[in-house]
Write a structure and sequence with these properties.
Largest sheet: 6 strands, mixed
Radius of gyration: 24 Å
Strand order of the largest sheet: 13-14-15-16-12-17
Number of helices: 15
């Protein structure tokens, strides 16, 4: 694809001109928000549904963002997506936020009763004799298709027929996550809330772990050596999860207590069944050197997680093997609005959608594997909570205490830009500059190439882009 003519690129307000400084008005200016809606969202792959919601032929889910509504459905030949508008008068044929199964009845317009099957073909027009033949041409009556591709247990949609494919846009990270079994995981729970903050403000809280010391102090207190080495000392960012002043056994117990805090804080990040297995291994024989013993202990834990969960019928990959062959970070970002947080056999996931310049919908999933004997029932809709609800797990509850007040602070007199640590907050700069590339109308192949650099970029450095 040829490079875009620089003279034809759109001029955008509040562009990132210094990669270490992000203009504050990007997070509340109405015109910038409208430009994102026009130039960004219609051209990117959006996580629209989890495939476990679409297990049976006829299962469908409605996904909407910024006034555009799509039906994602499992047809006889796989996952399809259609723009959610009756071809008669434009009424949505699927309810906003709805889900269900339409194998027998198809999609029925609630206005005049026109119908479509799972393939999007029109099957019934009420009072057909009232219409001219040219208004009822079968191909023209079909629901308009929308691009859809699947990966990591999700269906992703894109309104741009010319955009690079999902895997060309996101890159090898998708395969790495699938090698860890993410395409087989299912939701244990699903929460959602409306945050009084720009969608990017919410996103950026999960692009670095630099905030752990103050925002999640329980984690810092349990393993100060890890977090201080990562963020508090000039060590090149290499975290050592040990305290050399403690014995091997004391270090193991500290690791175990930290695992319990991660489970209490966010469930899927480290599942209770994994914590229980780790608790069985607190007294295993280990070398006397903690620097050797602790990585070995984690390897033993992961091996036992695989063995014991497979024994109860869960389809778990060899976690130690894939950690070597297909490594991922504890937080991975799938541009523009989806995060996954894989640790062992389970994961957490976040999806953020804009609702206005200073409001967004934030969804959280706890994902894990289930044995067939568990008779797990698919979680079909989120539990909506106020953003300050005490029912959220500890870690998102702590994050939600910061995000709304940060949004307020962005309006402060004289606060013209956020200043970033180039060696730890690089992802914030990188994805903002990729957004700018979309807003300018940069070459799609160059945008895809830049987007792939967001893989493993958590706590990362600022990249150089030619956008």
């Amino acid at each position: 694809m040829a490079d875009a003519d620089p003279a034809s690129l759109h001029q955008i307000p509040f562009a990132v001109t210094d990669p270490e400084r992000i203009p504050s008005k990007r997070y509340y200016d109405e015109d910038f928000y409208k430009l994102e809606n026009e130039k960004l969202w219609p051209h990117v792959w959006q996580m629209a549904a989890r495939l476990e919601q679409l297990e049976n032929v006829g299962d469908w889910v409605e996904y909407s963002n910024l006034g555009k509504s799509v039906i994602v459905v499992r047809a006889k030949e796989g996952i399809k997506a259609f723009h959610n508008a009756c071809r008669h008068r434009g009424v949505p044929v699927a309810a906003p936020g709805g889900a269900g199964n339409c194998k027998s009845a198809g999609f029925i317009c609630p206005f005049h009763g026109w119908r479509w099957n799972l393939e999007g073909e029109n099957t019934f027009v009420y009072g057909k004799h009232f219409f001219s033949e040219e208004q009822l041409e079968q191909g023209d009556l079909a629901l308009r298709g929308c691009r859809v591709e699947t990966a990591i247990g999700c269906a992703f949609i894109n309104f741009d027929d010319d955009a690079p494919s999902l895997r060309d846009s996101i890159g090898p990270m998708l395969e790495k996550l699938e090698m860890r079994g993410m395409d087989k995981q299912r939701a244990e729970w699903w929460y959602a809330t409306k945050l009084p903050a720009n969608w990017k403000t919410a996103m950026e809280a999960f692009m670095e772990g630099y905030h752990v010391m103050r925002t999640h102090p329980q984690l810092q207190r349990m393993l100060p050596q890890l977090y201080n080495t990562l963020y508090g000392m000039d060590t090149g960012g290499i975290g050592l999860p040990i305290n050399p002043s403690l014995s091997v056994r004391e270090n193991v117990h500290a690791q175990y207590e930290h695992m319990k805090l991660l489970n209490e804080g966010m469930a899927g990040m480290l599942h209770q069944k994994e914590v229980d297995i780790a608790g069985q291994l607190l007294e295993v024989d280990l070398p006397e050197d903690p620097a050797v013993a602790i990585p070995m202990w984690y390897g033993i834990v992961q091996h036992q997680v695989v063995e014991q969960l497979r024994a109860r019928g869960e389809d778990i990959p060899d976690l130690n093997a894939v950690a070597q062959s297909h490594p991922v970070q504890a937080v991975e970002f799938i541009f523009p609005h989806y995060f996954v947080l894989p640790t062992m056999s389970s994961a957490s996931a976040y999806r953020i959608r804009p609702l206005g310049p200073e409001e967004c919908l934030f969804e959280l999933w706890s994902l894990t594997n289930f044995a067939e004997s568990d008779n797990h029932q698919t979680v079909s809709e989120p539990t909506m909570l106020p953003y300050d609800s005490e029912d959220f797990p500890t870690i998102p509850k702590q994050d939600y205490s910061n995000i709304p007040i940060q949004q307020q602070g962005l309006h402060a007199e004289g606060f013209d830009f956020m200043r970033l640590g180039k060696g730890i907050e690089g992802m914030i700069s990188n994805y903002n500059r990729i957004i700018d590339g979309h807003l300018r109308g940069a070459d799609p192949d160059k945008l895809a190439e830049a987007t792939q650099t967001l893989a493993h970029n958590f706590d990362g450095q600022i990249m150089e882009y030619d956008l």
